[in-house]
Amino acid sequence: MGLIAQLALFSEETDRPEGLQYTAEFISPAEERELIAHVSALPLQPFQFGAHQGKRRVASFGFRYDYTLRRLQQADPIPGWLEAVIGKVETHGGPSTRIAQVLCTEYEVGVGIGWHRDKPQFGRIFGLSLGASCKFRFRRPAGEKWQRYTLAAAPRSLYMMSGASRQIWEHSIPAVEAKRYSITFRTMTDRKS
């Protein structure tokens, strides 16, 4: 490996937000096809942000955040077809990891998600990318500018946000170039996570 390639790898690792982990090929292509079939068969609804309606379509399980009431609400129970992948995510996260909330999302071509941090009621965040890759962008204030980092999230990959990547950095996804699905798995802050 040449010096420039080594420096690029070093730079990528030192720029990565603390607490952000990435695992390529977390699931098999067959598991991905099965999960996409299940998610696409859900009664997905446009994302509601108070009075505003987003372009991505979602279904929440376990809990959902009500932006009008500004609090968590009970949602439908987590479906049985998610048990196997939740087991893999919990094993990957370590012995105290307990997934309590799942969000299934469909992104049509041209749809993304703006800058945000997940609600403080949630602990660690795990995201499984399905169907197409995306640019998973991070930013945090750095004086009068922003420090930025972009993770190329490939299909079948899993990311985990904890620590600074979860608490300090904001994240977003620019408009996707191909139809994409994601399944977000969240622990709760008031439980071991």
UniProtKB/TrEMBL annotation:
Residues 98-189 form the Fe2OG dioxygenase domain. InterPro entries: AlkB-like (IPR027450), AlkB-like_sf (IPR037151), ALKBH4 (IPR032857), Oxoglu/Fe-dep_dioxygenase_dom (IPR005123). The keyword Methyltransferase does not apply. The keyword Oxidoreductase applies. One of its GO terms (biological process) is demethylation. It comes from the Bacteria. One of its GO terms (molecular function) is dioxygenase activity. Gene3D superfamilies: Alpha-ketoglutarate-dependent dioxygenase AlkB-like. Keywords: Dioxygenase, Oxidoreductase. PANTHER family: 2-OXOGLUTARATE AND FE-DEPENDENT OXYGENASE FAMILY PROTEIN, OXYGENASE-RELATED. This is Alpha-ketoglutarate-dependent dioxygenase AlkB. It comes from Bradyrhizobium archetypum. The lineage of its organism: Bacteria, Pseudomonadati, Pseudomonadota, Alphaproteobacteria, Hyphomicrobiales.
